[in-house]
Amino acid sequence: MLRRLTPVLLTLLVVVLGVTALAARPETGAPRRTADFVVLAGVAGLRWDDVDPQSTPTLWRMAQQGSIGSLSTRSAHRPTCPVDGWLTLGAGSYAAWNGSRQEGACPPVGVTIEQPDRIGANLPDQESVVLHNQERLPWGAVPGSLSESVRCSVAIGPGAAVAAARPFGRVDRYAPKLPDDPAGLLGSCVLSIVDLGTVAGDDPATRAADARRVDAALATVLAARPPRSLVMVAGVSDTETPSRLHVAVADGPGWEGGLLTSASTGREGYLQLVDLAPTALAALGRPMPERLFLGRPAIRVDGRPDDLAAAIAAPADADREAGAQRRVAGWFFALLALAQVALYVTVLPLLRRARRLAGPHSPPPVSRRVVATVELLLVAAALAVPAALLADAVPWWRVDHAGWWFALVTVALIVAATVLVRLAPGHDRTLGPLGAVAGLATLVVGADVLSGARLQLNGVVGYSALEGGRFSGLGTVGLGVFLAGALLSAGWLAQRFRRAWRPMVVVTVGGTAAVVVGSPYLGSDPIGAVALTAGVAVAAAISTGGWLTVSRLVWAAMAGLALTIGYAVVDVRRPAEERGSLGRFLAALGDGTGGLTVHRSSTANFETLVNSPLTLLAVVGALLVWFALLQPWGGLMRLFGIYPAIRAAMAGTAVAAVIGGLLGGSALDVAGAAAALVVPMAALASLRVLDHSTDRTQPGAGRQRGDGPSGPPAGDAPDGGPGGGSTTTADEHPRADRPLPAGAGTREADPADDAAQADDADPAQDTASAEDTARADDAASTGAEVGSGDRSMAAGDTARTADSEAGDDGDTATGPDAGDGDGGGGDGDGGVRSVGERAAGAGGARGAGVPAARAGESATPTSTEVTTG
User: If I label 366, which of 66, 140, 492, 685 is the partner at 20 to 30 A Cα–Cα?
Assistant: First the structure.
């Protein structure tokens, strides 16, 4: 009873720890009132490489005194054209101007501004723009929310009028251009929005001239700024494709000499355009609108270099890296998908011929050199994504032909990692490469997350600040690789322990990974933590044997749901501006706007499904597993029967990857990233387990005649594992890379074999197993023929055989479904089945006949174990 409850209790522990880790949020320093006036000065297209002491001396001094950051100008239209940027600034949420526009282009948009008096202005198209954003776009933005939150606002310039117009189109105070002395205008309202102009084009001289005009206008504004005011300069939009990162500078009381950040980015030195509206209201001490902004108030943090040139070089370099990442990421994943598909096609004939059959008419085995080469290619393919992540530690984007340099660095890292796996101890064992690759992938991604996820930000296999979806923590691809690596590592490690300890090992490793994924200090992905918790629950439940039944799947879903509910209860109790994504979603359900979130998630899933190369990886990997590896000739069923903890890890990976992708709005991207690691390793392990399918085992001198496959009592097991379970290498199959000597296909049994098998067998059947072995020995001595696919006993003898295989601490593969379970029992209890039952088995080697035992061999007073699935 305790054995069955252990996975349940351990998973509940993971849920409790997960809720605690997700609920703990870093101190962000709640924004407080710092100014009596706020001036938002916008410049379309202004980037950090436009700022220098010669062309923009005023902006340079302002940056030296205030706080700086990189601004992501995401809006509801891509790229963010000037009119979309100004509209998003005033809405505090992703907005876009209505009208038909070509995706990926920024044509001029005429904005009609009427001035019925000399004080304000009116935008007659504003109401239709608001309706367009409310009914046609998935963000539910309300243009004009910023101006609606203050009593009076000022707009100078046409772009500022778009940002300052109230939802019904009225601009409180308006000037079409900047006056020579705007002091009276800037001091008439607490909020002023100024359009300083545009910096456009690719020619450096043209951009420098535009930047000088903007700097002169900024000097006029700063000279007339009201007392105790906050002035923010922002590059509010792009002017052409592709998108870029832009300038953000804040100067005022409490904003001296630091870096800008916000809760929406969670990354020092980064802001979003939607953060500017809540920042203005927070600085003025005004309440947020009833429908909360998508953005969060900006705050100042320490850590900026004293040298301003060095401080500005960092966001400029980030802009170059983000631009290079967008160009390289597409072809990298496309090439990875094509390479893995080609490799899978190559593996198929090897799987067909991997089993070494007996008899004069069997096909010749594949050359060992060919098999070794394909194995290395499988290892390299599995390590491609971790190597690409690590390649961003080298600044390849700073040189010409950046894509080629990235390819060169990535290939070098793949080769180095493959050599490391090849030279790792235990590589020649069946699970050796799988454990090494899984551990290496988990180490690379985990180390990056623990060090601040610096390699994922703007990385080729990470996330881009230009997209504005994520700025910190674990990205979509990183989540897929990390959860797959963590669960495979847990399964590989659990397989080396006694069966009773395996759930604890899986939960310990998987639970630690779930905390890393979900903690706001580390992975910052609560959805990923929920998905991984469900995967860990599945893996722990079947790590001791048996398949993924409906009840076990329901239990995994309940574990993930428990973690979700626990975190949601804690998150929804926080103040509105401090809630996470789950808390905001529950609040939206309460006020009737939750449908927008569901619509955005479903739209994102569909767009990702049809556009991402990772979808191809996920689909092709699933087809290979289902139509090849899981077939009787594919070897994966045999692998699962011998190594139930590996089966548990792969099942848990599939559950976690699908849940994480669908709930996170990334469709099959998480599953594709996980498949890029798991499927090559599954193919490699299947090749190896098929290669050992006809090996034989001869007991050693220390084994008594009546021990049988169950071996000696568990208390007699050698040291090396918990409870005496063997963790030595004596019970693992060496690879047959060399011609076998006389007696080929046999090996001496080690007491460790007996210990592993005794642990995996039902104690109630020990005596019967010993008797069955004795009867099998008697049958063999009279010339009984034992075949791996068709086991018949001579002279009508219906005695049972004692057939088993143990390798890499594998479980005894006996029973009708040696490939379907752990020792044939639904719960993994070991046992020996009758001849008729074994012949009907779905797993194992079918048709791989073994010649009848020779009289001399049969007369040996020992039992012979025929290795089979």
Answer: 492
